[in-house]
Amino acid sequence: MTGIHRTNGFITALLLLFVVFFFSTTPAGARNGPGKELAGLVQPGDQFGGFKKAAESEYYFPDTLFEYINGGAELFLTYGFVALMVTQFIEKGNPAHRATLEIYNMGSIENAFGVSRAEEGGKPYKLPGGAEGSLGNGMLQFYKGCFYVKIFLPPTSKAFPAVAEHIGKTVEGRIKGGFARPDFFNLLPHSDRHTGSENYTSKDFLGQPFFNRIASARYARGENMYTVFLSTESDTNAAENLGKYKEYLIQENAYLSDLPGGMRGFTGRDPYYGNCAITIIKGRIAGVLNNPEHAVSILQSMGGRIDEKK
Amino acid sequence: MKKNKSVYTRREFLKTSARGLAISGVSPFLTKSPLFSLLQENDELSYRILGRTGLKVTMVSFGVMTTDNPGVVAKAIRMGINHFDTANVYQSGNNEKMLGEVIKREHARDRLIIATKVALGRDKSSGRFTADASKEAFIRQYEEGLKRLQMEYVDIVYVHNILSPEMVFHEPVLEALTRLKKEGKVRFAGISTHQREEEVIRETIKRDFYDVILTAYNFKKDNREAIRQAVAAAAQKGIGIVAMKTQVGGYDVSALGISPFQACLKWALNDPNVSCAIPGITNFKQLDENFAIMKQFELSPKDLKQLSRYSAYLNGTYCQGCGQCVGSCLRRLDIPEYMRSHMYLTGYKDTEQALGLLREIASSAPTNPCSSCESCSACCPNGIDIRGRMKELHALQA
Asked: d(Cα A211, Cα A297) in Å, to the nearest integer?
């Protein structure tokens, strides 16, 4: 009996050791969820214009992203970063020539869009499937769905941009679904909008810790350049946050007046961002920067669009 | 900028620092370096000298890193903060661009000390530069940064993220920095380090090449004592020390009724060998809070309490994702993923993100996987209350 117990105990201990070893050597997120989704976007035999996958892809999660990009990690964490897969491709016969593919699962389309906008450089670029991004300085970057994709080579590499485009096109095709922009931009005015000026700020809009998740776009009417912004969702704290901003403007001697016509909200001269008319529409913070003449009508028409959407 | 009202003598400074350190429970570590930083103070601003560079930097400087609010940078300049730190990789260069535009608009270049960083290819496994980390690559990257900053020169250029002592004196980088200095495009050279800090700092002081070290340094680092001693040795050699990562992740702990970030900054600045810290600042509130400590940077008993509570929070809060708990759970649930969802819920205060992740997990596990267990066997080697957190997550889904 005792011998059987000992044998069983030994086998159990071995199994336990195996389980502990397995789970401690495989990154948790790579086994399922976001890691699994990322893994499908690169395949073992992938080869692009003489560049071949160099080694297994590496995975990073919110608590390990610093190991990969240290200071740069904070931007991604601000935008709700979920997981990153990094894959290196090396040119045949020339291992010093590398192409690096980074695919970030940002958890949502607005986060992927926001971080893509924060990092865009070079010229605007559209992939064959419609995904939008930019190309230049040795980097191709774009977003599609909740994924933000970056491909870079040394800027002097002769393989750039062809290899980056080839990789980008392949990854874009493997991300399920069609390309779409975050739909909250449809709530902002369409006329006079600068193409490609849309932005999404996850926190600290106008430098204020209470203005988070804000969509904005720039506009031009004649000589007048202005910005319109709107919370991407309604917030039960909207009135409180509006009050905090009013307090800030008063402290800065920048409060001007309440909005006319009984509209909730006020105008002020923000010391760092200019004239601001701000209100609440269906629980969302909405505002216009630097267009005092038309601010009220812009806000009213935006209210109409939000009503229609509802 | 306001005129200096008083200048601390070295003796006064040593006294002040020693008092602060005694309160903090950290043994005083006052150096006898002849290049020991001087402290100058007026009503609001305090400065220290950045080692042998002779640069007079505001003790609280500005880590621009995640800032995309030009208004916050503009206000910092107007308040008198004079040292701004960026890097060519932050927001893929857009951070340098934004900083350059604000400085130009504020006509402030001449009165500011600007630091940036250049990151070359590194192989994490060997802790060395990759084959493409050449002199030309360094110069090219740096000059692209100069264009984005719209500047003729930068005051401090760091070799970004030195992983090991072997990376400190990489000849192509030294050649690049020597050339850039000769051409007047760089005033001082430095290195930045986030890991193996003590070894990297000790290696750096072996040769008389770098003027500044930017190091991760905070009250929670396991190796803080070793860093402290290495920092003292570097300061003794005249190297200027800039502290980063002082806020230990800057977790939102307002729900706990504590606000530890001023205390975190004070902790770092109470090391007299640290010339300044560069906390990341993204809004006006943080700017005002950080700025305020220049008036009074001694660690008070209240500060120590804040640090102690923040420390406790960090100990039992941060899931490292090691997965060791999974084997102890009878259902073999992917606990790190649940803990991540909990972090979104309580750390980031983002219910939607927490629920989104729970939905993802639910695709491969039942909605309330703990319901079939009478008691919880899962345990975390770092003491995280897995059972309590799972309960909170189930309540969220209910």
From this structure: 22
Q: Which positions in chain B touch A204 (Cβ < 8 Å)?
A: 69, 72, 282-283
Q: Which tens digits make up the pLDDT trace of A33-73? A: 556 779 889 998 899 988 999 888 999 988 788 888 877 78
- Please indicate whether, in this complex, the C-beta atoms of B353 and A69 are within 8 angstroms of each other: no
Q: Which residues of A206-234 are buried (b: 16+ CB within 10 A; e: fewer)?
A: bbbbbbbbbbbbbbeeeeeebbbbbbbee
What's the pLDDT score for residue A298?
Answer: 95
Nearest to B21 by CA among B296, B293, B267, B273: B267
Mean pLDDT to the nearest integer, B211-217? 96
Which pLDDT tens digit goes with each residue over B267-301? 999 999 999 999 999 999 999 999 999 988 889 99
> What is the pTM assigned to this prediction?
0.78
**What are the backbone angles phi and psi of residue A164, rounded to the nearest 5°?**
-60, -40
Cβ pair A70:B319 closer than 8 A = no
Q: Are A92 and A50 in contact (CB under 8 A)?
A: yes
Where are the alpha helices (H) located in A182-285, listed in sequence order? 238-251
Tokens of B192: 């930045």
**Could you say which DSSP state residue B371 is in?**
G
Q: How many CA atoms lie within 13 A of A55 on its CB side?
A: 8
* Closest to B124 in 3D by CA, of B166, B87, B185, B158: B166
Q: Count how many Cα atoms sit within 13 Å of the Cα of residue B392 in the half-sphere of its side chain.
A: 16
Cβ atoms of B66 and A201 within 8 Å: the answer is no
pLDDT digit string, tens, across residues B375-398: 788 887 667 788 888 888 888 877
In the DSSP assignment, the letter for residue B176 is H
Distance CA(B200)–CA(B198), nearest Å, equals: 5
Best CA proximity match to B244, nearest among B292, B204, B276, B212:
B276
Interface contact A119-B360, CB threshold 8 A: no
Query: Closest-CA residue in chain A for B279?
Result: A71
- Strand partners for B62: B84
Give which of B78, B106, B4 is closest to B45, Cα–Cα. Answer: B4
Structure tokens at A153: 């080579």
Residues 6+ apart with CB under 8 A from A147: A41, A103, A104, A105, A106, A112, A175
DSSP string of A224-251?
A: EEEEEEEESS--TTHHHHHHHHHHHHHH
Q: What is the pLDDT of residues B150-200, one digit of tens each?
A: 999 999 999 998 989 999 999 999 999 999 999 999 999 999 998 899 999
Q: B60 with B291: CB under 8 angstroms?
A: yes
Count of Cβ atoms closer than 10 Å to residue B202 Cβ = 17
The answer to whether A98 contacts B130, with C-beta atoms less than 8 Å apart, is: yes
Residue among A63, A123, A212, A241 with most chain B CBs within 10 A, to mutate:
A63
Residue with tokens 């195996």, as numbered in its chain = A18
Q: How far apart are CA A52 and CA B65, in angstroms?
A: 33
Q: Which of B2, B7, B24 is nearest to B269 (CA)?
A: B24
Q: Tell me the residue ranges of DSSP E strands in chain B.
A: 6-7, 39-41, 46-49, 56-58, 62-63, 83-85, 113-118, 122-123, 128-129, 154-159, 186-193, 212-216, 240-244, 276-277
pLDDT tens for each residue of A247-296: 999 999 999 999 998 899 999 999 999 999 999 999 999 999 999 999 99
From CA A284, how far away is CA A190, in angstroms rounded?
Answer: 19
Name the packing angle between helices B335-346 and B351-362 (round to 10°).
160
Distance CA B114, CA B73 (A): 13
Q: Tell me if B213 sits within 8 A of B201, measured CB to CB.
A: yes
Give the span between the Cα atoms of B372 and B389, in whole angstroms: 17
